[in-house]
Amino acid sequence: IDEEISDASAPKRPKLQERTDYTRWRMLDEAGRHTWHYLEDGEDVEEWPQSLADKYFLGLPMDLPDLPAAKTPLDSVKNGLEFFQHLQLPPGNWGCEYGGPMFLLPGLVVTWSVTETPIPSHIATEIKNYLFARANPDDGGWGLHIEGESTVFGTAMNYTALRLLGVSEEEPRMIKARGTLHKMGGATRAPHWAKFWLSVLGVCQWDIVNPVPPEFWLLPDWVPFHPWRWWIHMRMVFLPMSFVWSKRWTGKLTPLVLQLREELFAESYDTINWGGNRNNIHEKDNYHPKSWLLKTAFWALSNIYPYFRVESLKQKAENWAFKLIQMEDKNTDFSNLGPVNGPMNFLACYIQEGPKAYSVQRHRERMADFLWVKDEGMMMNGTNGVQCWDTAFLIQSVMDGGLAEDPKWKPMLTKALEFLDDQQIRENVDDQAICYRQQRKGAWGFSNKDQGYAVSDCISEALKAVLVLQRTPGYPTLLEDQRIFDAIDTLLTYQNKSGGCASYEPTRGSEKLEMLNAAEVFGRIMIEYDYPECTTAVVTALSLFTKYYPEYRAADIKAFKERAISYIRRAQYPDGSWYGSWGICFTYAGMFALESLASIGETYENSEHVRKGCKFLLSKQRDDGGWSESYRSCERGIYTEHPTGSQVVMTAWSCIALLEAHYPDRAPIEKALKLIMSRQQPNGEWLQEAIEGVFNKSCMISYPNYKFIFPMKALGMFAKRYGDIALP
Ligand code: LAN
Q1: Could you tell me if 198 and 264 are in contact, meaning their C-beta atoms sit under 8 angstroms apart?
Q2: Whether the model pTM is above 0.80
């Protein structure tokens, strides 16, 4: 055996505490970059006091007074704003935890570990607390996301993370989790991504990882399955993964790694047939089983291709992949597209450039942008924040209630506008075509401009907020016309042949590429698809724009909108519903689709599509007036109720949909709004209920600010239409 056990140089494990002192945590927002800081002993806690937002995020008492009880929906919006204004951050944006996925922290902890990055005790302590808080109470394991059942992926990876953080294998919760993992067959039954991370760590042998050849990047661009055609998140994860896989790189073999080899498998490490377990996967993890084509390709790549894989080709592929990694790092100032490719690019730089390189240092700093502290501990966000997205929606929801001119909210909204002004992306990336990036000049992203990835609906929602607010008396004009035109020019590049719009880019490949989906745990990930949500956002942004600028590219916009709306009509299911891909699920998409139709004058009165849409939603309204859609809808593609009953967020979405549709009977809407108002707390807040968001059909993600934004929007829209009246 040629493995060398490294002991002396093994990184020091962090000192774990029971918990940290929550009065010492602060969130710093520097122009939309969010990082959490722990004031150590001796540091002056007074000099940097905890803000109300910090306290709220941390679950500490805010001691806000009770507000006069809301008598009308508009009162309720005002109370909501009274509370929500305290959460506005100094640059003008809102933020929040953005958790849900349970596969992010382990990738980061493995990366920290193999790159010998010291983990400060307060961070290790709170990550440990979060992971334990999120273990499933019945079996001690973890799922793909916080509401999901335990899987091998979740359990093997989070168990490993806890061990790397310094938790003992004898701790009772670890014994329970290990038992669950073994019952499921152990880590040999994990999906591809887990096998990858465990091989990096040295707990698995690389033979268990299905091939990820960087040579794909050398294919000519016309090849129908070239990675540039894939959905951006898949290709940007594939990129560093292919580099690391090709190197078969493994971190130092520490005593802890040796112990993990004993703990993670249901059989003895020495007898495992690594190659033979490549396609072994537990049913619970296998949301999207591999196609026959992919299995054949993997077989050929493992058994035949190695004989042809000459060193020079391998070198060339690795070098080109690394160049692309460097372009991604440069274009995002090391923020990277997301929380999976971020740590992987970090690792790739460590392998290629060594521990002292600037790239490694900068990646290390950037990891902080993904971390978030909440009452349960420290977690990793699904992006480096929700800054532009939530801020744009908040502005719109105040405007929809007609409150933007109220002097009371002007300072808050002006700050929010200033934030969006600052966060507009002003230039395309260098070498856009070489690194396969989409035009982005004039755009907004989901989080911040450092990350700098434009998304069709993020551009649209921010643009709508800016357009209306700038035209509202009393607000400054911060974006001159040319900057608005830049946004429109970019937006107009987003339409697919179908008429619909996707997320980051127009669709670049065929749906058949789904046959190469190797991640197993997600569905519909290989290419961009049309989404009613994204399409609606673009359509409504274009409509609003033409109101103010009737001349600019009028013919293009008209044609774009017609084709987009015809896609929205086609996307409706026979029962009248639309399937949502980014929020849960039919209520979310219904809200957008009916908004699209309303934007061209289609309402309940004159449109069969709208009538069917309303009928579907109303058939799901519960006796208490609410809607209670569960994440299971996304997985199954069938409307499914949440076991905990009506949810404020889904109820708000449905109300907005019915209001957009001009549904003639007010009664069901009033009943729903009453439910929303009854859930509002005396200080104006709404409490967290079931999870709201989703991606890739199977993984859920939290949008904690939705419980403020959408109830306020629904209540405000009602008030604007029917006046400031009490509900019967
Ligand atoms: C997001 C978050 C925002 C979301 C909307 C803007 C709401 C949507 O309308 C378009 C798609 C987008 C931008 C989106 C895409 C996928 C993301 C980035 C996420 C759901 C947040 C986390 C997720 C990302 C893929 C998580 C990392 C996991 C991998 C499988 C790489």
Answers
A1: yes
A2: yes
